[in-house]
Amino acid sequence: MLLINCPLCGPRAQAEFNFERPVETIIGVDVPTAELVERLYTRTNARGPSAELWRHARGCRAWLRIERHTVTHVIASVAVWEPQS
Amino acid sequence: MSGFRLPDGGRIDRSRPIAFSFDGRVYSGFAGDTLASALLASGVMIFGRSFKYHRPRGVLGAAVEEPNALVTAGQGGRAEPNTRATDLFISEGLSVTSQNRWPSLAVDLGAAIGLAAPFLPAGFYYKTFFGGPRLWLAYEHLIRRAAGLGPAPSEPDPDHYEHRAAFCDVLVIGSGPAGLAAADAASAAGKRVMLVEQDILPGGSLLRDAATVSGMPGTDWAATVCTRILSRGGRVLTRTTATGYHDHDLLTLIERLVEPGAAPSAIAQRLWRVRAGQVILAVGTIERPMLFTGNDRPGVMLSSAVRTYIERFAVVPGRRVIVAGCTDDMTLTAESLARAGAEIAGLIDTRKGDALLAAQGAPVTAVTAMIAGRKQQIRCDLVAMSGGFTPSVHLHSQAGGDLAWHDGCGAFIPSTSRQSQLTIGAASAAETLADVLAQGWCAGGGNAGDAPVTNAPASSWHGTAAQPDVTPRKAFVDFQNDVTASDLDLAWREGYRSVEHMKRYTTLGMATDQGKTSNIPGLMRLSANEARAPAEVGLTTFRPPYVPVTLGVLAGEDGGHHMAPRRRMVLHAEHERHAPLWQPLGYWHRPRAYPRAGETLHASAHREARAVRTTMGLTDVSTLAKFDISGPDAAEFLEIVCATTVAKLGIGRGRYTFMLREDGMVMDDGTVWRLGETHFLLTSSTGGSDRMDAHLSYARSILAPKLRVAVVNVQEHWAALALAGPQARSTIEAMTGAAAPRHMGASAVTIEGGAGWLLAASYSGERAFELYLPGDRMVAAWRAIETATLAAGGALYGLEALELLRIEKGHIVVGAEASGRTTPQDLGLRKMLRGRGFIGGSALARPALQSVDREALVGLEADSAIPEGAMLLSERGGTPIGHVSSAGERIIGSGGIALALLQGGMLRMGEQLLVSSPTRGIEVPVRVVTPVFYDAAGDRYRD
Predict the structure, then answer these.
(1) Quick check: B88 pLDDT over 50?
(2) Closest Cα to residue B121, out of B555, B524, B482?
(3) CATH number of B4-111: 3.10.20.440, 3.40.50.720, 3.40.50.300, 3.40.50.800?
(4) What ipTM does the predicted assembly reach?
């Protein structure tokens, strides 16, 4: 179980968090169908650094951006989600 | 009857004799004895029968690595099967039974299989399955009876378990000399220390091999160090096994507060989750067996185990002993045996070219050996063998660490670490006690000059037994799974040359001992066959748990009704007055039906549903998911989530709506109400409430962060009831003194002192009103409406009647029709879809979703009841073309009706199909009809 350092709550067990999705699969409404299929279904399962959207669902409920290595599980950074333009 | 107890010595308490039974016969031992030591002292040599061939087996080891002596400890719900006799400390009254024997341990008919050993070669199951089903049918009966371990208990476990979390700076696994020195140094440096030991006593090898440490007997030093750690605020957990090393230095420990089979005074076992700053693995080694014919015979034991029985338990397992090995360790064992008065019948030192060829008898009576170039047969009643020592790398590997081959050990040792783990002591191949103490002290942060000192003479345990030139017959590699050297050779000849393939094909290392004694010998065999270095052949993956773990301790406190808190609706007591049948729904229990005395569920549901159709019915819908959505951009936000129009709703109006996942499948449905210009109420299904909450939050925070909108989960703020039926309007109006809203209208309402909303929505197909009041104001309103309903001849109705009503009306439900695999088109909701701008909209254009062959919603009619969940066929024996998603019966009139998902959907209108449920033995002919069976025009509730 990962130890995630929530910027608002401090280090907490993974059990308090929900993994939501890799950042590149955050898809706005009305993207063309072909692009949606590519980004949802035919994407690469990263081996290495991965930028991900998490939520401290059983804690402060903040949405978080976590940079995690998918092989070693080393977490490079945890930040409160900044809305993208 | 060869084992005996020495008159004095050992770390047992002779003032506390303990009586226990083994297969019904009473034995006695002393406090501090394991089952194995107590039985060996009583002369017992045969402990069980082997897994596949039912060969008689004795004790091989003296701790958790034991593959042979597996027993069932305790009785009834407390029985713990497959417990290692070497890892079970006896308690007064303990009842133990042997396993896998019939009718008894002494006379086992299954052993006849052993005579036909070639009958179950490597890959037996694979070959049998590929040989066709007939072959399997022929063998199955025999196999199921013959192969097995102890049976799982059939009664409920009466014991309690708990989970506990802990943190520390330094977690030390293993309290041998290395671990003790490390923990002592770390705690002296002010670190928060946890020291974990799987045995009942600290000391590790000091319990077996006497030595002076820091000027005192080793075991006294161990006790002193533990006291010191405790006095500095550290924690020492004995009888606790580290079973898993997980991510980010989280370890799971299993603490046994009582021994298997014994009755606890409080908690039986505790699961610790420890997050450590640093983890020091001082886990020692496990001795390997040697490879020779009959190496599994009772009386053939590991060399260090023999020494443990003599030195720690004062039990000599045999009187005339062969000592065989490949390291200096065999000398220690021979000396120990001699001191204990046993006769050394022969020393077989493979370093001098000697070889142990075969053991005979059960228990063992003689061996055949090559000593000093002469082949001879020697009488004996015990063989102490050592094929070398394997450092325990399990936890290091689980933590993602790499391994390196170590020629001295003839095994792998930890190399680089991925997490904060450090392996020390014998597990890192360190040899002498002085080295181990110094290494441990420094690992704990101490100065090398201050390390504890010892007078123990240097002795080497490195070494490995050579592979025999010719594969010996019936030479076991994996004792627990009955895998022989010839099995491994056969697998190799058949092409299983990767270590992972060999493992699966032969089942090597797949038993409950997970190959603790067999992994390296198996690897050596493969390496010899492949003519490749063992380091190149590699090892299979180590996974938690290190030792078998009871399901009880994994469940912890969360068993039975503690599994999940039972949530009660605010009207729970109101329902309870009518003694309903309860049904779990989401987190709650809701009334399924309110049967009268003597009434069946079916009859009750029909009576309740009929009341709705003819007068009125009252039901509790408080558990529905509800969201209050407000702000200038509330309508815009809802149109991102909902696939139907929302923005065009007038104030005080509502509509049916549904939400899609990103892949275009219907996720949930409900109603949306515009309570004010910028204020909406969204309802959705009970079971999907958490999912919808997360979905709305995602849409709000991630997809549309700039919208000016607030989303509040008001599921448990509003209690809700629904009153449905021809008399619903007049009843509500009498209650409120005001005109009730028309269909899909909403109005603010005050009723019995509670202020809330009255929503005219119909799920049942009748005119109906949903009343939303704050939870603390609902009871009075419910009582008043209940009184009016019953006085008018209406009824309370539960989930079962609700199902009948909505199926007849053709309303879909999340989980049945909206199964997660159906689009709005599939469910006949296409006309309600907006063009774009909502989640899931783009995905609906995927070509595969346009196919007319997709399963789509239809109605089914039959003369009799239609089985829910059954498949749809064009004709008997045909390929399934759909399934019945919800089935009911006509409420007024008769006949079975159902909603179904059918390939081609309404294109099959009017077709005659067959509903078939082979598991229930039911076949019903059905007609495909439109999925609305009642008041298709909606005249019953429209204004």
Answers:
(1) yes
(2) B482
(3) 3.10.20.440
(4) 0.97
